[in-house]
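Colleagues,

For the teaching module next term, I've prepared a clean inverse folding example: a structure given as tokens, and then the sequence designed for it. I'd like students to try predicting residues themselves before seeing the answer, so please don't circulate the second half yet.
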């Protein structure tokens, strides 16, 4: 489903994938109060090629589902890539860490929205956690309080969100 949504433009799958992400968000929680769901951004070249940002689209669907359930949550697309990264497919854990180190940032104007707010990172897939760790670093550097991460899928992973 993820590949069909991301690579083949099956945009109608955003709703069921969002429902899965919403379940993960409920499992991780936000520490009370309004929660900012911050999607990990896709590479600019990938968004241009696909015509959409799949993680942002899934996060928006999850947010709508969570609001229907009475939770105060909103999506803030507050991360951007500050430099190009290689495609992570085929890279081992160490190579992934090196690949994404310092690659994400929070633009200055967005930083004020993050200050002290509980932030839950959102991604479609976690393999080693390198991208989520980099996203957490960037959000913390901007003054955000990362409470965890929620993902749609974590195939064969023993990744712990506590390591963020």
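(Answer key — instructors only)
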């Amino acid at each position: 489903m993820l590949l069909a949504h991301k690579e083949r433009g099956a945009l109608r799958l955003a709703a069921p994938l969002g429902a899965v992400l919403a379940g993960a968000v409920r499992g991780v929680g936000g520490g009370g109060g309004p929660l900012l769901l911050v999607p990990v951004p896709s590479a600019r070249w990938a968004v241009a090629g696909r015509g959409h940002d799949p993680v942002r689209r899934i996060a928006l669907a999850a947010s709508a589902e969570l609001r229907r359930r009475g939770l105060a949550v909103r999506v803030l697309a507050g991360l951007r890539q500050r430099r190009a990264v290689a495609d992570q497919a085929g890279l081992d854990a160490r190579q992934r860490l090196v690949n994404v180190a310092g690659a994400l940032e929070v633009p200055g104007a967005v930083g004020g929205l993050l200050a002290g707010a509980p932030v839950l990172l959102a991604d479609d897939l976690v393999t080693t956690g390198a991208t989520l760790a980099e996203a957490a670093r960037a959000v913390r550097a901007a003054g955000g309080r990362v409470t965890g991460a929620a993902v749609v899928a974590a195939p064969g992973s023993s990744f712990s969100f506590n390591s963020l």
